[in-house]
Amino acid sequence: xxxxxxxxxxxxxxxxxxxxxxxxxxxxxxxxxxxxxxxxxxxxxxxxxxxxxxxxxxxxxxxxxxxxxxxxxxxxxxxxxxxxxxxxxxxxxxxxxxxxxxxxxxxxxxxxxxxxxxxxxxxxxxxxxxxxxxxxxxxxxxxxxx
Length: 146
Known about the structure:
Blueprint: H1 14-28, H2 32-41, H3 48-56, H4 63-72, H5 79-96, H6 112-130, E1 132-133, E2 142-143
Antiparallel strand pairs: 1-2
Helix pairs in contact: 2-3, 2-4, 4-5
């Protein structure tokens, strides 16, 4: 017998957990875009493409993504139950020697704003390092010591 709609703890594996997430999304009546917006309104970050990939490919979401998803669905009081169920599936998978999730590893691409901030910081650091500082009136600019 598969998982019940209201109890994420009844999921026995990653596929059943993803199915429960699909049911919760369906019950919320929200699209992936709506969920992304609702999460942002609540102060969470929820990339709709990542969420869609997790649900469609029967993967366990990262804990932060799961929390944002459950809250965006309007189930703030159920976040703890969902996290406990996820943790239990990770532990069961570890005991059985099978990977619980590909999205649990830190190889996921960071959000674009993180990459943009890193690039900007690098550009500013390089500019400061190679900026010439004038020594005074009538003297040629001198490179800052680095």
